[in-house]
Specification:
The protein has 193 residues and is mostly helical. It contains five helices and two strands, in the order αβαβααα. A two-stranded antiparallel sheet has the order 1-2. The chain is rod-shaped. The relative contact order is 0.09.
């Protein structure tokens, strides 16, 4: 976004500089002369003049017109690129936000699944101890609990990733800052060894 803003500002300044070719050149001059004993007649303004000049000989002004039009086109292009960059950032941020909430709800569902599997295993153990359940069903319930716990771990890891991506897209964290922090921790570990 910074580079798009700089490109836009540069194009705008170039356009303003090109517009100076349309303006006439003006020189203002004054001559003062005087001799006298009092302040009133010591400096007398004898001549005041100005000279205005407008050059149309260089391409009859068409060069300046085409340069200005080209600069205006650059300014418009830079503004469009800036808007496109803003839309891309906004889209990425919205998608990250939606992914964050989706993974948050998946974690809640995985927690409920793990709780249900834990309860199902507890009931299966009670039935097995009372002779109502076969051992194979008990093993099946333990397997379901293990799968539910693995699903919970995976969904929590995905939640943490989407949370980090959202923070990155919001500008709260940056890869450079994380690398610096990681580098300082690694150098601290080497020093302690």
């Amino acid at each position: 976004i910074k580079s798009a803003m700089q490109l836009r500002e540069g194009a705008l300044k170039e356009g303003l500089a090109k517009a100076g070719d349309y303006l006439p050149k003006v020189d203002v001059y004054a001559e003062m002369a005087g001799t006298g004993e009092t302040w009133d007649n010591m400096f007398g303004l004898t001549t005041l003049g100005f000279e205005a000049r407008y050059d149309i000989g260089d391409g009859l002004g068409l060069t300046a017109v085409s340069d200005t039009m080209q600069s205006r086109a650059k300014v418009k292009r830079a503004k469009l690129e800036y808007q496109k960059e803003l839309q891309t950032i906004e889209r990425s941020l919205r998608l990250s936000f939606l992914d964050f909430h989706k993974s948050k709800s998946i974690v809640k569902a995985a927690q409920k699944e793990q709780e249900a599997s834990t309860e199902a295993l507890r009931l299966a153990k009670l039935r097995y101890e009372n002779g109502i359940e076969v051992f194979a069903r008990l093993i099946e319930k333990e397997s379901e609990l293990t799968a539910a716990e693995l699903n919970l771990i995976t969904s929590v890891a995905d939640y943490n990733l989407t949370q980090a991506k959202l923070a990155y897209d919001m500008g709260t964290i940056s890869s450079e800052a994380l690398q610096k922090q990681l580098g300082s921790k690694q150098s601290g570990l080497k020093a302690s060894k």
